[in-house]
Amino acid sequence: MEGKVNLLDLSIEDLEKLFAEMGEQKFRAKQVFEWLGRGIKDIDQMTNLSKALREKLKELCYIGKLKIINKYVSAIDGTAKYLFELEDGNVIESVLMEYKHGFSVCVSSQVGCKMGCKFCASTGIGFMRNLSPGEILDQVLSIQEDAGKRIGHIVMMGIGEPLDNYDNVIKFLRLVNHPDGLNIGFRNISLSTSGIIPGIIKLSKEGIPLTLSISLHAPNDEIRNKLMPVNKKYSIDKLLEACNIYTEVTKRRITFEYALISGVNDSDDNALELARKIKGMLCHVNLIPVNTVAGVDFRKSGRERIEHFKNLLQRHGIEATVRRELGSDINAACGQLRRSIMEERNKN
Ligand code: SAH
Prior knowledge:
alpha/beta; DNA polymerase, domain 1; TIM Barrel; 2 domains; ten-stranded mixed sheet; 12 helices; 20% strand; elongated; binds S-adenosyl-L-homocysteine; tRNA (adenine(37)-C2)-methyltransferase activity; iron-sulfur; Elp3/MiaA/NifB-like_rSAM; 4Fe-4S
C-alpha cells in the first residue's frame, strides 16, 4: 500500500478535498464515508460509484484492514480479546465486552506505551509508534464484523496513552461519532489518561462530551511517584486542578481509576487521604483489584479490604464503586497478550 492513503483515516471533509482534487463531485465523499462505516474492505463494494471512479480511487487509496491473528473468548462472561496485526507487522489488542447496556469495545491508541507505569503489562515492551485514526477505528469495525454485534460503546483503555497521540485520537473520536459513520454518541465513549495535563485542558475545549477517566491509583505524590513516572512531571495537586478545570468547562463528571495493590495504596489512611483530596469534586472513584502481571510482584488487595476502602470513601462523601472483572480467564487486561506475544517473538 506504499504511498497510498488509507481511506479509514479520512474525515468527510478530507474526502471532499480528495474528490475535489480528482475533479469529482463533493457528494461522493458522503457515499464513500457511509460505505466505510458499514465496514466494507474492498473499494469495488462501493456499488454506487461507477467502475471508472472506483478504479481512479484505487490508484490513490486503499481500505486498511487489521488482521485477526488470535481471538480468546472468556468461558466465564463471553468477553473476547482480539490480537490484531497491523500492516507493518506490529501487534495490538482490543477487547469486546458485554454490559447491561450493550456491547463495548476497548481500543488501543498506540503500539506500546511510553508512560512506564509499574503495574501495567504494557510497560517493558517499549513504545513503537502511534496508531492512525483509521487503525483505531478499524478495531471497532473489525470486531463489529467478526462478532456480528452492534457496538454501542467505546472505551479508550487499551494499550497506549491516548493523550500522547492527541490529534489522531481526536480525529478517531470525531470519525466514530459521525452520524454517517458508526454514529456512537460521545456520551457512550470513555477515555482514560495517566494524567497528561496539557492534553486534559485541550480536551476540555474540544466540545466532545465523553467520560474522562483519570488513572490516579494513589492519594499522594509519594506513592504515585513510585507507581507512575508521569507524576514526576504532573503532580497530583496540579492534576486535580486540571480535572477541576475540565469538569467546570464540560460539566461532565470525572472518573478516578484506582487499582488497589496490597500494602501499597490500600490502607485506611490512603482512603482517607484520597477522600480529603477529591472532596467536593464532580467525580466518582472506580476501584479496581490490580491485575497481576508476570514479572511484577504486586498483589491484589483482598475482597474485604476493597469493600472496606470503598466504604471509607463513601462514608466521607465520595461516590465509589468496585469494577467488575471481565475476562479474568483470558488475560483480558490490556497489554498482557501483546506482552506474551512480543516475549515469544523476542525469544525466537
Ligand atoms: N494510558 C491510559 C490508558 C491505558 S491503561 C491510562 O493510563 O489511563 C487503562 C487503565 O488500566 C488505566 O486506568 C490503567 O492504570 C489500568 N491498568 C493498567 N495496568 C493495570 C493492572 N495491572 N491492574 C489494574 N489496572 C491496570
